[in-house]
Write a structure and sequence with these properties.
alpha/beta, 24% strand
Length: 489
Amino acid sequence: MEIMELTPAERRVRDAFPLGEGVDFRAGDDEDPADGAAWGPERTLRAQVLRELLLGGPVREGRVAGLKVTGARITGRLDLKYGAVAHPVRLRHCHFEQAPDLYGAQVVVLVLSDSVLPGLTAGNVRAEGVVRITCCRITGPVRLQGAKLAGALFANGAHLGRPGEVPEEAVLQLGHAEVGTDVWARGLVAHGEVHLNGAGVRNQVNLNDAELNAPGQTALHAEVLTVGTDLHAMRLRARGRVNLSGARIPRQLNLAYARLSNPGGQALRASSSAVGELWLRDAAPIEGAVNLRRAQLDLLHVPPEVWPRQVQLDGLSYRLLTPHLPAERRLPLLERDGDGYLPHPYEQLTTAYRAVGDDAAARTVQLAKLRRHRRTLPPYARLWGLLQDAAVGYGFRPMRAAGWLLLLLCTGTLVFALHRPPALKPSEAPAFNPLFYTLDLLLPIIDFGQEGAYAPRGWYQWLSYLLIVTGWVLATTIAAGVSRSLSRQ
């Protein structure tokens, strides 16, 4: 392009380029790039001119050339597709008429902070430094799928998509991208899906204070996402499904104070994921189902009031459960699994309580498990289970058996003390003792010589039969319950 074809604004940029100096077209710091369509020729740059500078512009020895423009209106499409850009690109507070195309390009640094764009195509881009779309307003999709960034991606405060609309295409596409440091998106507002499937982030992903809007659809799609440290999403507001199935997050998945809402569908899916710590501290009650099947966690911090009405927990494993609460506060959650009775969630909760030395809570969970299982059995088995439960709490309430024995012993002793049964052979019978006579009836393996020497009559005989039968049933139930308890240990 000949120099004579350049406008005065373009000449300013051309002259500053080889020196690496910036050109600021703004009349004041409070200008809104959304009004850029009305900016005049004194601050209008053709995208073709910028392309020529970036791909073959003049350089000066001893200086670092670079495109640094603030507050310009850029007309046409900035087409750098497959180009090798050896200079930093900084276009701040600019208004783009068309979406830049950097598909497959190689860049040093790409900064578009505070700009307004109809979209950004940069799939498979290679960046030696950072990519910044901080505080940008981008109505169309941001395509960064397959990108390889040596530095970080900054999207803090960016607004993507159009309010009230949920486009079919994800508004932020980072599928299978590789980010050398972090993804910073604090305060991101997305009207549509944020897509991170298969992405790899060396350090952390930060979505604190982000707002993701995709009602009835997927707000955050991050299956098989791999991060080096943490995924922070404190105070996240997600309308739509948050899908982290198969994600690998070795330290924290922090959803403290978050609001997850997807009524009628899954609000949070983290099945088959591997997470160091999952935090939902002080989060709002989740609206929608939660799927944590086969997830592996070291620590799970979710207060009972945060869980929704429907959960899927089969195969979920965790080492620690916080905050530490009585088992009665945790057990209702296990009743909400849509797959019905499953033994694994009860065993996992038992293990967590035993890990912190709360054996009483562990026994409570095991008792609840057996009672829940009893409801799935045929009638005859349910009857036997009820008997074991009433007698000894399936072996987890041994003092209950002692109470039954004491009640029966006192009853028999009192009755037979008032109504002494006649001796079978008065001359050979030992002196009658109502206490030991009742013990003889109750305990099948003990013989004090009283039961065989005396024979009650009438309804007292029926009472003796009742004591014998009850003693046998109680003794076998205790043995069965204790045996089951020992086998579980």
